[in-house]
Amino acid sequence: MIEGSSVAGGSVSSDFKKQLAGYGLTTAEILYRRPDHNWLLQSYVWQNYDLFPNFPALNDFLAFWRAKLEGPLFAVTVAHTKLIKPAEMKAVDGVFRLH
Asked: Is the peptide bond prior to 35 cis by the omega test (within 30 degrees of 0)?
């Protein structure tokens, strides 16, 4: 049984539904300048399910950052992977038998 699901209600987690809809796990390392010491860079790690290649959730978060937070952005590094994808198949040269 999937965590967060119920047999009677038939509900599954919203994260699992997003994965089925094509969302993948996105991690962004955000480097920003400290407002009190502009010469000093600090790192913030953001992680959420998002859509490749436009990353609407990440762009919304970065827009929020620019509008509401004082630390100016310096650099954003993004990693993305789909957690639910077709199974990988490999041709095998031979047979392995278990008794």
From this structure: no
